[in-house]
Design brief:
The chain is mainly α. The protein has ten helices and no strands.
Length: 245
Amino acid sequence: MVDLFFQALLFSFILLGIHASFGLEIVRRGIIFVDIAVAQFAAVGLALSILIFHEPSYLMAFVFSLFAGMLVALSQVKKEFAEAFIGLLYALGFSSVVLILSQTPHGMEEFLQLTAGDILFVSKKEILISGMLYAAIGFLLYLRRYLRNELLREVSFFTLFSITVTSSVKLVGVLIVFSILVAPALVANLLGKGLLFAWVYGALVNTLGILISFKLDLPTGFTLVFFHALTGILVFLTTLKKSVS
């Protein structure tokens, strides 16, 4: 049981490392729905592959998430309407997953897995592969700042983002990806802090969520989502109160 706890904690830190990096940029741009929309399209690819091939396909999930990522990149041409467009993409993806999985024998179980999977049962091999993949993506994300062409910078950002989200959704589900990406980045921005703060803050919330899920025998994935959402909302309301005063 102790091994499962530390394994889940380690993987939550790995997820936080790459997703907080993307999250700061996404929160700064004000396109919050982009994460959950792209993640949801990755889930559409996974759901469709389960229906057709009876097993999840990483390639199909990546194609769908990349397609959504490119649509989001195009939406930036009309930035004033981009968030509404991205919100509709999410609604389309979510409803598609429900419709597709309604035609599979274990639709509800598969739906819950794609929404917030159990981080406890991600294997050591998957953790190792994810760690190496995210490290490579983080390096490429750093190199992206040296690209001079604006269109190339945008395309590279959303391509790397799509690869990251596809891998994460397959392992832990849409909501965990969304909460770990948005909440630490939002809190860091609200408090005028940077990436290091987002990592430390996110690590503390991850530890709290996983500890409580073990103590109270709660679903670990949904517990993580709950505490990231709750603490993010509380910090937002606290800073809002200070602004009003």
